Amino acid sequence: MGLTGIQIMQKLPKTNCGDCGFPTCLAFAMKVAAGQAEIDKCPHVDPAVKEEIAEASAPPIRTVVLGSGEHQLKLGGETVLFRHEKRFENPVPLGLRLATDMEEAEIARRLESFRRLRWERVGVDLHAEVLALEEVNGNKDGFLSLVRRVREECPEAVLVLISENPGTLSEACDLCGEHRPLLYAATLDNFKEMGQVAKEKKAALAVRGDNLAETARISEELLKMGLKDLVLDTGARSVRELYEDQVIVRRAAIKKRFKPFGFPTITFPYRCARGYLAEAILAAVLIPKYAGMIIMSDFRADVLFPLLVERMNIFTDPQKPLVVEEGIYPINGPDENSPVLITCNFALTYFIVSGEVEGSRVPSWLLIKDTEGLSVLTAWAAGKFGADTIAEFVKKCGIAEKVKHRKLVIPGYLAGIKGELEDELPDWEIIIGPREASGLPSFLKEWKAA
């Protein structure tokens, strides 16, 4: 169990100097205990005490950092079994396999897919992050050449380097420079050599056992060697075994604080699935239960996009809805005669509505009212998107100075407040828009300011 705020405060200088950014040592200790501040922020704590507190306050599943600079990637850091208890911390990275036995054209196609398959949804950039490079049949030169190529062509990619030869992985690490890769993998036969390479290169190391017991044994041995940044592969070779292993590892780490399993996992669905569709379905299962990283055999847009959307939904905070800032949003270059529409600040609503308005090619003003992330009807029911609040926002937002007309389009679901809103805004004509955003293009093309 982590230390309490009082226990942490007892290890602090108790000077209340404020150098940590908090007014008192107690306030700082409470924030550290809650995971909202790092013990490193106190410049006066003894290093040994810092390490003790950091270790005791660390999440049950260690956070492993890969990559470098703006292309860093965090695995693990999880503290709960179920999303509604708190939230899931670090989104599961999705990766694409490249191997030395692939034809040049196939490697080029996969690298192009990695770069090209990107989407934006509700303001979030959706894309894969990882390339797993595998040495096949001891082709060391081909492997090192592949590492060089990927670093040049896809410098943003976080790398998983797969080889049975510790010397080869050592040379591949040198090619990565400061870009920290994941070395795959330490087995019962080679964990000492692999562990030494990981220590020398300061790289993260994957553990691969033939089963859960063997994985735990290798993990324990590496911990004794002083290695802390580990990623686990339990060696599952069936769908059921892979799924059950993820649950067992997560439960053992969080409920039992079993240190050998206190690390994120890496999974390869194609090793268990029969066919690409089955692989995609298994990947969709592993995102919420409880893979730390997923490596796919190939990327297809019709499979990757749904996986990325699922990941985005699972790894948002269920207690904090996605919102956009309140204000006036010009779309398609509006002028003083352009229509004025209003909706809530729930991010999904905003991006759907703005997308339809943009697609209509009709210059428009879109007013976004702060509804604390609630959708139109929910906000109305909660009293955050009624006639009085809308009228107050319209008066203060400044839209009256931007248009000559006085016509306001409200969502069709709010037709019932038209009369009240006209009483609140006597100078404005209230127009009921379509109930669904898909009806906006045709509605706007028929709209007239006069």
TrEMBL record:
Lineage top rank: taxon: Bacteria
Protein's UniProt keywords contain Ribonucleoprotein: no
Protein name, as recorded: Acetyl-CoA decarbonylase/synthase complex subunit gamma
InterPro entries: 4Fe-4S_dom, Ac-CoA_synth_d_su_TIM-brl, ACDS_complex_subunit, AcylCoA_decarb/synth_gsu, Dihydropteroate_synth-like_sf
Domain 4Fe-4S per the UniProt entry, residue ranges: 1-59
Binding-site positions, [4Fe-4S] cluster: 17, 20, 25, 42
Keywords tagged on the record: 4Fe-4S, Cobalt, Iron, Iron-sulfur, Metal-binding
Binding site for 5-methoxybenzimidazolylcob(I)amide: 343, 349, 373-376, 437
